[in-house]
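In the design runs reported in the main text, the only information available to the sequence generator was the tokenized backbone. The following block is the verbatim input for one such run; it is reproduced so that readers can re-run the procedure and compare outputs position by position.
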């Protein structure tokens, strides 16, 4: 799975929320200032080229659906994050967020409860 740029990820989030959808639907998801239609169309074409989207022709336009699910993409992205920034250690990642106060003790206890329930 090829890595996506920030703009491509943003468009994919819109498409996952809307799908199936047209380019004009994606453009409508942006806050102001809205990027030009042609810019969004170009990003969508890149996503199609990378294998993230498939297009179905409707008259003179295309309707897009994802070929990579949001959960699958998220899992791959998190795995890459852990491998590249935390030496492949999820423990180090959680420790980092705890030290940065991005995760509370209550959150950690909830995570522990989830782990214990899955055993």
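Verbatim output:
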């Amino acid at each position: 799975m090829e890595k996506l740029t920030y703009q491509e990820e943003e468009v994919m989030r819109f498409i996952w929320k809307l799908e199936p959808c047209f380019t004009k639907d994606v453009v409508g998801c942006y806050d102001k200032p809205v990027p030009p239609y042609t810019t969004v169309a170009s990003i969508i074409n890149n996503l199609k080229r990378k294998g993230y989207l498939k297009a179905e022709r409707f008259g003179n336009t295309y309707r897009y659906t994802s070929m990579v699910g949001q959960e699958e993409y998220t899992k791959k992205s998190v795995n890459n994050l852990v491998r590249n920034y935390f030496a492949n250690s999820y423990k180090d990642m959680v420790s980092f967020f705890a030290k940065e106060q991005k995760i509370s003790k209550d959150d950690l206890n909830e995570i522990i409860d989830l782990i214990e329930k899955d055993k």
